[in-house]
């Protein structure tokens, strides 16, 4: 059974237009850790929750195709991927097409001082080597 916790002023029904006193809209955000399944929080914000505060540096993550239109079979030695300190730098795309990227990674540092959210790469699968286990994220 769901339970509710209310802080501040919220609309009588969820997912409806909710205006401030000056007529501007509050921005609604449905936040959960398991997609649309499981527990979630419906929050209303004065400013957009997706507003970009800062872009500190950019580089291309577009995969470079080594052998275009390749149909030859290869053996992957996934646990031999070179370890890197940073999670983002450790990702190595091994298979790619226009729909999906399959990535191998072996990050050594488990703490990051950044947050990354890439909604356009929902069809990107990463296999992470973590203390001898292979984890799919």
Task: Explain what the structure shows.
- 3% of the residues lie in helices and 24% in strands.
- By secondary structure, it is an all-beta fold.
- The protein folds into 2 domains: 8-51, no CATH class; 78-136, no CATH class.
- A 4-stranded mixed beta sheet has the order 3-4-5-6. It has a two-stranded antiparallel ribbon with strand order 1-2.
- β1 and β2 form a beta hairpin.
- The radius of gyration is 21 Å and the shape is elongated.
- Its EC number is 1.13.11.5.
- This is Homogentisate 1,2-dioxygenase.
- It is an enzyme of class 1 (oxidoreductase).
- One of its GO terms (molecular function) is homogentisate 1,2-dioxygenase activity.
- It comes from Nonlabens tegetincola.
Key terms for this structure?
single chain, 137 residues, mainly beta, 2 domains, four-stranded mixed beta sheet, two-stranded antiparallel ribbon, elongated
Please give the alpha-carbon distance between the first and last residues.
29 Å
Number of domains: 2
Q: DSSP strand (E) fraction?
A: 15-25%
Structural class: mainly beta
Q: What's the total number of strands?
A: 6
Helix content: under 10%
Largest sheet: 4 strands, mixed
Shape: elongated
Strand order of the largest sheet: 3-4-5-6
Average of per-residue pLDDT values: 75
Quick summary:
The chain is built from one helix and six strands, in the order E-E-H-E-E-E-E. By secondary structure, the chain is mostly beta strands. It is elongated, with a radius of gyration of 21 Å.
């Amino acid at each position: 059974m769901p339970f509710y916790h209310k802080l501040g002023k919220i609309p009588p029904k969820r997912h409806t237009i909710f205006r401030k006193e000056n007529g501007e809209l509050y921005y609604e955000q449905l936040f959960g850790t398991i997609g649309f399944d499981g527990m979630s929080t419906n929050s209303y914000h004065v400013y957009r929750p997706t507003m970009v505060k800062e872009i500190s540096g950019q580089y291309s993550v577009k995969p470079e195709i080594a052998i275009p239109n390749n149909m030859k079979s290869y053996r992957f030695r996934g646990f031999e991927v070179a370890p890197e300190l940073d999670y983002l730098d450790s990702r190595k795309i091994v298979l790619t097409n226009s729909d999906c990227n399959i990535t191998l990674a072996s990050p050594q540092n488990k703490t990051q001082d950044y947050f990354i959210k890439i909604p356009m790469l929902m069809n990107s699968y990463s296999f992470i080597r973590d203390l001898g286990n292979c984890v799919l994220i």
